[in-house]
Amino acid sequence: MWNESTSRTTMDEICVNVKHLEETEEQCTHEDKTDPDTVEEKLISSNKHSWRPWQQSRSRIRECVLCVKKVLVSFASMEWYCYALLGIITALMSFFMDMTVAKLLNAHQWLYGCLKGHHLLQFLCWTLYPACLCALSTSFAHSICPFSAGSGVPEARAILLGMDMPDYLSLSNLFAKLFGLICTLASGSTVFLGKVGPFVHLSIMVGAFMNRLHVSCHGGKQRAAKGEMLVAASAVGVASCFGAPVSGVLFSVEVMGTHYSVRDYCPCFFAAACGAITFRLLSVCSRDQETIQALFKTSFSSDLPYQPFEIFIFALLGLFCSFLSCIYLFCHRWALRFVKTNKPISRFLATEKSLYSAIVAFLLACFTFYHSAGHFIAAELTMKQLLTSLLDGTSWYTVSQNTSALPEPQNTFWQAWNPPGRSYFQTLGFFITAKVGLLVVACTLPLPAGYFMPVFIYGAAVGRLVGEGSAYLLSDGISSTKSLINPGGYALAGAAAFSGAVTHTLSPALLALEMTGQCSHAVPALVATLVSNAVARAKHRPSFYDGLSLIKQLPHLPSLIRACPKLANVQIKQFAVPAGAVLKRTETLTSVQRILNDSTDTEVPVVDSHDSPILLGTINKSQLRECLQEHRNEGSCKQLEEVCSIQPMRLHLTPETTVKQAHCIMSVTGEQRLFITENGRLCGIITWKEVIRVACSALPCTHILLQYTQTK
Fold first, then answer.
1. Residue 323 above 90 pLDDT?
2. pLDDT tens string 236-257
3. β 603-607/583-584 pair status
4. What is the sign, positive or negative, of the torsion defined by CA atoms of 515, 521, 522, 528?
5. Helix residue spans in 342-374 (DSSP H)
6. What does the DSSP assignment read for 117-177?
7. What is residue 658's three-state secondary structure?
C-alpha cells in the first residue's frame, strides 16, 4: 500500500509539473507573439552578460582608470589634457611623416646616383618614380575617401563656420589623406607640392576625435565646445609642421576664422606649444639635431644685419612680390577653371584620375630632368635643400670669387645653382619664370597636397635674386661701414612677402622668423609683407583660399563677400523664411502637443497672439515635453503660460540688417538660427544655411570667378 500511495503521489507531482511546464511554455509563446522586441532585448542582454570574459580584471582596470582620472582632474580639467594630447598626437604624425618621406627621397636619390652614366635609365628613374607615387596617392585617396584630395583648408574653414560636413572629418578621410600626402611629398621637388594645408586638415580631424573623447570622459552629459577644439587644432597643424607655435596661432586667427573668440586664445597657444615642443624633441631623440632649435637655422650677422637704406629695397621687394602673386593667382584660377570647364579634360578626370595624375607628374618630371630644363632650375635639390640653400647668409658673389675652400653642403648647393656654362643669376631667373607654370599645372592634380611651402620657396628665390643683384651692384659695401649685403635676409623677406600676398595674411612673416630663428630681420620681413599685402588686397582680389572656396562652390560666405562686395550690403529680408511652428501664450496643452509633434525645431517661438504676433520669447522643445508630461491629465484646462516659463529673446534681427552684419553676429554668437522682428512683431527666421544657399544661387561661384578672371 505504501508503494502504491507513494507512486500515486509521485505521478501526481509529475503531472502537476508537466502541466506547469506546459503553462509556462504557453505563457512564453504568448509573450513571444505579443511582445517579440522585449524577448529579443532580454536575449541580447543575457548574451552580452554571459559573454564577458575576465570580469574581475576588467573591473580592476576600470577602477584604476577612474583613479587616474580623479588624480588628473584634481590638477586640471580634462579639456586641457585633450588639448595636450592633440598637440602630441599631431606632432607624432608630422615627425613620422617627415621621416618616411625622407627615407623615400633618399632611396630615389640613391637609385638615381647608382645609374650615373646611363642617361636613359636615369631618365626612367627620374620620371617613373614620381609618376607612380602620384598615381598611387590619387588612387588610394579616391578609393578610400574621395574627399581627401586637395589641401582641405577651404573645407575646414567652412566647417569652422558651422557647416555640417562630417565626411571631411571621418576616420577613413584621415587615413586616406595621411597615406596620400606621404606619397605626394615623396615625389620631391619634381612635382613641387607641400605639406601644410593637408596637415592642418589632418590636425582638425584629430581635433574632432579629441572633442569626442572629451565628451565621452564626461559620460556624454556635457557638451564640449567643438569649435574651440577645431580652432586649436588648426593652430597645432602649423606648429607641428615647422615647430612654430606663435605663427600657428596667428594662422588660425587669420585664415581659419573670420571672427576670433578671445576664449580660444589660451587653448590655442597651449596646444600649439605642446605640438611644437614634441616635434622638436622627436628630432633630438632621433639624433637629427643636437638640441631644440629652429627648423632652418640661419647664422646671419647680428652686429649690423642691414643698413637703414636697405629698408627701401625691402619695400620694393614686397612690391615686386605682390605683382608676382597677382600673376600667380590669376594663372592658378584660370587653370582650375579650364580643367573644370573643358569637357574632354573634365570627362577624363571623372573616370581616370590616377592616370591623369601619372601623366601630369610624368610631364613635370620630363621638364625637370637634369639633362633637360632641370639643369637650369636646381632640380636635383629637394624642397628642404632648396630652402636651405636660398636662406644661406653667404653671398654667392663672394663664393664665386673663391670656390675652392667651400665646405659641404654649401658646395653641393653652389654647384646646383651655378651649373657649368651658366651663372646663378640665369638659374634664379629661369627658376622664377618656370616654377610659376609648373606649380600651376601641379595644382590641378587630384591628390592630397599643400601649396603653401612651394609658394614660400618661390618667394625665397625671388628675394634671393633681388639680394644677389644688390650684392653685385653694391659689392664694395654701403656707406662708410663697408657692410656687405646679406642675400639670405632678402630671401627670408621675399618668402614672407610672396606667401603673405598669396594668402592675404601676415603670419608668414612671423613664420619665417620662427623657422629660421632669425629675429634680426623682423622689421624688413614685416615691411615687405605689409607692402605686398596692401597691393594684393586692392580691388577686393580674392586670396588663394578664397579662390579655392569659390571654385569648389563651398558655403563660405566671406569668400563670396570678398569676390562680390555688393553682397555684403544686401538686406536679410530677402532671405527670411516663415517661422514655422509658432505658439501663442494662451495656447492649451492639447494644441501645444499637436503643434509640437509637427515641429522639428529645437526652440519654438511664443507670441502674444496670432493676430498680434508680438514675439515674447522662446521655449525649448525638451522643456516643453517635460511640462506636457507633467500636466498630461490637464490638457484642456491649463494654458501654456501657466505651466512653462517663456525665455526672453536675447538677440533678434530686423529686416534691414545686412548680410555682413548677420554674418558677424552669427559668427560671434555661434547661432545658426535667428528670428527677424519688425516693431516687435515676428516676421520670420533666418538660418545660416539659407543665407549661404540663396547667396550662392543668386551669385553663382563659377560666374563670379569667370567674371573676375576675365576683367582682372
1. yes
2. 999 999 888 999 899 888 888 6
3. parallel
4. negative
5. 343-351, 353-368
6. T-HHHHHHHHHHHHHHHHHHHHHHHHHH-GGGSB--HHHHHHHHTT---GGGGSHHHHHHH
7. strand
